[in-house]
Amino acid sequence: MKVLRLGIVIGLIAGPVIAQQQQTGPVYQERDFLTRVRRLTVDGRRAGEGYWSPDGKRLVFQSEREPGNPFYQIYVLDFATGEAKRISPGVGKTTCAFFRPGTDEIEFASTHADPKSKELQEAELNIRASGQQRRYSWDYDPEMDIYAYNEKTAALKRLTDARGYDAEGSYSPDGQWLVFTSMRDAYNRPLDGAEQKKLAEDPSYFAEIYIMRADGSAQRRLTSVKGYDGGPFFTPDGQHIVWRRFDETGLIADVWMMKPDGSDARQLTDFGSMSWAPYMHPSGEYIIFASNKLGFENFELFMVDAQGRKEPVRVTYSDGFDGLPVPSPDGKQLAWTSSRSGGSAGQLFLAQWNHDKALEAMKNAPLRKPAKKS
Amino acid sequence: MRRFLSLSWSSAREGRLAGSNGERLASDYIVAQLQAIGAKPLPGRRDYRLPFEFTAGTRDGGSRVSIGDRTFGTEADVRALSFSDNGDVSGDVVFAGYGIVVPDGQDFGYDSYTTLDVKDKIVLVLRYFPEDADQKTRQILARYADLRYKAMAARQRGAKAMLVVTGPRSPNAGETVPMSFDTALAGSGIVAASISGPVASQIFAAIPDKTLETAQQSFDSGNPHTAGFAIPSLKISIKAAVQRETKTAQNVVAYLPATVPAGARLKPWIVLGAHYDHLGHGEAGNTLAAKEDAGKIHFGADDNASGTAAVLAVAETLAAEPRQRNVVFAFWSGEELGLIGSSAFTKGPPLPLDQVAAYLNFDMVGRMQDNKLNVQATGTSPVWARIVEQANIAAGFDLQVQEDPYQPTDVATFNASNIPALSFFTGTHVDYHKPSDTADKIDFEDLDRIVGFATAIVRRVEETSEAPQFTKVEQKMQSGGGRAGVRVFTGTIPDYATDAKGLLLSGVIGGGPAEQAGLRKGDVIVEIAGQTIANIYDYTYALDVLKIGQPAKVVYLREGKRMETTLIPAARK
C-alpha cells in the first residue's frame, strides 16, 4: 500500500525527469493487456488503493465519500451486491487497507484516535468551501497508526502506537506477518540540525520498511537507507517483499525486492523516473508498477520481470494518472487507480488482464542497461 | 431488443418527423408493443397517445406590395419574413441602410437610425451587413444583422413595417429571403417582408440621382456616419401574410402499476423516457446529410430508435416482476425540433409531477465504443452517484459521469421540473443526423447491457421508501464555442415552445443571477433594462445591452400580475 499517490506527486515541482520513450521490437497498446476497462467507483470525490480479498469476491479501498468528512475512509466493495460498506471509524484520515488471509480481519491506518481529528476535518471542509483549490498534499500525519478491524465482531485492534506515521501495511500470504512503512525514526531519537530541517520539509525522508506479527508484536526495522522506503507487499510465495525506494531528493524512485528478514535487497528497475507502487502478479513472473517515465504528471502502469533483467514494458496509454495496480488473486483481472475519467481525482478501475500477452511483451523487451552506480 | 429496434427499419415510417404520417405509424408500432407487454394507458385515459400541437412550419400566405399603380404579388418579388405579424400597412418609405443598431455599451457606435425619423413609416433596409467593412467592424455588425434583430430595431423606432432587400453587391443579390424554419408561435410585433431587386428598384425610381446599387455602395465601407434618407413623395402599401402551420404530434405514454399499494412509497411514480421522433427526410433543417444524400430518409436507428427500444425492453422486464412504484414509459415526439413533446408533457402533466421520484432518459444508446457509457445529469440528486456505482458493479461499463443536466435532450425538461433525472448516451458518431444512421450499425449486445443497467437503477429507486432528493445544478459555463457574441450570463432557461408574449421561463439556473433576482419557472419576462421583450429573440438581443455587474430592472408577469425585480448580470466565462 503505497501512500504516495497522485496528489503528492502533483504537489511537487517538476524535477529533472525527461519524458522519453524507448521503443524497440513489437509495439503494444493498452488493449493488448487490458480489456473491458470499467469504472468501479463513482461516489465521492476520489477513491483508490483497491486491494482484493483472497477469494477475489471483494475489494477493500479508500474513498472520500463519508458525509462531513473530507478525508479518505475505508470501504469494502462486494462484487455480488455492488454495495460498498464503510469499515473504518468514519472520523479522521485513513489509508491503505488490506485483507488478512484466513481471518475476518482487515488492517488499515487511521488517525481517529487523534483528538484533533474533527477539528482537522472542519478546517479542510472550510478550505474547500472557500473555493480555494489547495493542492492536495499527503501530510504523513504522525498520528497515523495501524489497526486491524474484525468484520465478524466489529472490534478494532490497535497494532502500532509509535509516534510518527505508521501506514502502508500488507499481510504475508499466510496471514501471520504484516509489513508496513513507518516514519518513527524521525521521532525516536535526537535529530541533528539538517535532519530537523528535513523533517519540516518532507517527513517521508525518514520512512523505512518495518515488519511485525499480525498481532502487532515483534516490530522490526528492515531498511535503513536515506530517502522514502515505502509501499511494501509480500510476493505471492511469501518469500520476498517488493517495495519502492526513493533517492534522497524524493524525485527518483525504483522498484526493489528483499527477503522478509531484510536481507538480499535487490534493485529491479533503474528507470530514471518516479517508479513506485509495485505489486507482483500471482504467477510470480512479473511486477506491475506505476512510473512517470513519460512525463512528470503522466503516470502510467509498467511491468517488469521478477528478476529485473529487462527494461520495463508500458501497460497503460491514458493521459493523467494511472497507478496503484493490484492483480486479482486469480491473475485474470487488474484493479488500479486512474484519473482517466476526467479531472485530477482518481477513481478505481477494473479490467481483464491478459497474462499471456504480458509475458510475451516482457520476453520481447530489451535487456536492462546496467544499473548506474550512485 | 432487435425486435424493438425495428422501429427504425421501415421506410414507411419515413424518418418519424414529428407531426408526419411516419411519426403516426411509429406511434402505432410503439402502442402495439406496449399492449403486448401489458403496460396500460395512464390512469383515467383510454389512449396511450397524448397529442400536442406545435408550429411545424411557416409559409407565405399571399403577401403583396403596391408601389404607385404597380402591385407585386409573387413570392419571387415579395415574401413575408417568417416572424412577421400579419396585416396591411401603407405609408412613406425611409431607406435606413443596413438597418443595424449596435447597442450602447459595445464601445462601437453604429446606429442606422441616428438621423432618421421612421415613426409610422415603412423602413427599407439591406440584408446582411456592410460588404467592404474591415474584419473587426464586420464581426461586430454581423452580430446585429439578423433580420429578427433588424425588425426589432425598426419596431422600437416606431416603424410600422420593415422591408428588406438583398443588395446587388451581396450574395443572393436581388432574391427574396426564404422562409426560415421557426417553431416560435408568435409574430414579432411588426410587419416584415423581403422584396426582390426589381421591386426595390421600383422604389428607388422615385429618386433620380440614386440607385439601389449606389446606395448600397455608400454603406458598404461600414462608415457609421453614412446616413439613410427618406424616399420623397412615394407611398407604398404592404400586405403581409404568414401562414403558421400548426401540426399535431403525439407522445406515447403507458405505465405498469405498482404491485404493492402505491401509498407505501413517497412519490410513487418513476418515469422512463426516450424520444421516438427523428428528422424525417431532413426537411426541418437539422440534418447533417451530405449534399448527395439530401432528402433521403433519416432512419435514426441510434437517434433514437435505440433509446425507444431500450425503454420497451426495460418495460418488458419490469412487467414480469413485482414493482414497488408505478413505472411510466414515455415516448416523446418533437424532441428533434426542440424538446417539444417532453415540454408539452411537463406543462400539462397527465400525472402529478411532484409525485415523480425520478426520470431516466435514453437518447442515442446503440453505438457504444470502448465500453464507454455516458451517464448524464447525476448532479440532480445526491443519491445518483451511489446508485449508479452499485448498478455498474454488475454492468461493468467504463462510465463517463456528467453531473450537468443541461443537456440537449429531454432530461433537461425534467430537470427544469425539479425531478431527479439521469440520461444515458453512448456518444455521437459519424452517422449522427444523417441518413446513414441505420439499424445495421447498432451494437445490440451492449444495448442489452444498458437495459440491464438501467433496470437495476429503476429497481434501486423503486426500493427506497424515501424518494431521491432533488438538487439544483449550477450550469457550468462553456468556455469558447456557442454564441460567441453573448458575454453576459443571466441564468434563465427560456421555454422555446411557447406562444406567450414575452419570455416564458421554463426554469432558472441554480445560483444564477435570475434565481438570485427571485425569478422562477413560469415567470414571463416582458421588459429588461428598458427593452421590451416580445419573444425569445428580443430577449437574446436585449442581453447585449446588459452590463456585467450592473443592476438591470426586470419587469415580469407572474400569474398574470406585473412585477418588478433587479437582476445583476454575471460574466459568461
Q: What is the CA-atom radius of gyration of chain B, in angstroms?
A: 26 Å
Kindly report the oligomeric state of this protein. heterodimer
Strand portion of chain A: 25-35%
Beta-strand proportion of chain B: 25-35%
Helical fraction of chain B equals 10-25%
In DSSP terms (H or I, runs of 4 or more residues), the helix count of chain A works out at: 5
Strand ordering within the main sheet of chain A: 1-24-23-22
> How many H/I helical runs of chain B?
12
Low-confidence stretches of chain A: 1-23
What is the CATH H-level superfamily of the largest domain in chain B? Zn peptidases
- Largest sheet report of chain A: 4 strands, antiparallel
Q: What is the mean predicted local confidence, pLDDT of chain A?
A: 90
Q: What overall form of chain A do the CA principal axes indicate?
A: globular
What is the element layout, followed by pairings?
The complex is a heterodimer of chains A (374) and B (573).
Chain A: H1 6-11, H2 30-33, E1 34-39, E2 47-52, E3 58-63, E4 73-78, E5 84-86, E6 94-99, E7 105-110, H3 117-129, E8 145-150, E9 156-158, E10 166-171, E11 177-182, H4 193-201, E12 208-213, E13 220-221, E14 229-234, E15 241-246, E16 253-258, E17 266-267, E18 275-280, E19 286-291, E20 300-305, E21 313-314, E22 322-327, E23 333-338, E24 347-353, H5 355-364
Antiparallel strand pairs in A: 1-24, 2-3, 3-4, 4-5, 6-7, 7-8, 8-9, 10-11, 11-12, 12-13, 14-15, 15-16, 16-17, 18-19, 19-20, 20-21, 22-23, 23-24
Chain B: H1 21-37, E1 40-41, E2 49-60, E3 64-67, E4 70-72, E5 78-80, E6 87-95, E7 122-126, H2 135-142, H3 147-156, E8 161-165, E9 191-195, H4 197-204, H5 212-219, E10 229-240, E11 242-256, E12 269-275, H6 301-319, E13 326-332, H7 340-347, E14 356-362, E15 372-376, H8 384-395, E16 398-402, H9 411-416, E17 421-425, H10 444-463, E18 488-489, E19 492-494, E20 503-508, H11 513-516, E21 524-528, E22 531-532, H12 536-542, E23 552-558, E24 561-567, E25 570-571
Parallel strand pairs in B: 6-7, 7-8, 8-9, 12-13, 12-14, 14-17, 15-16
Antiparallel strand pairs in B: 1-11, 2-11, 3-4, 3-10, 5-9, 6-10, 11-13, 15-17, 18-25, 19-20, 20-21, 21-22, 21-23, 23-24
Helix pairs in contact in B: 1-6, 6-10, 8-10
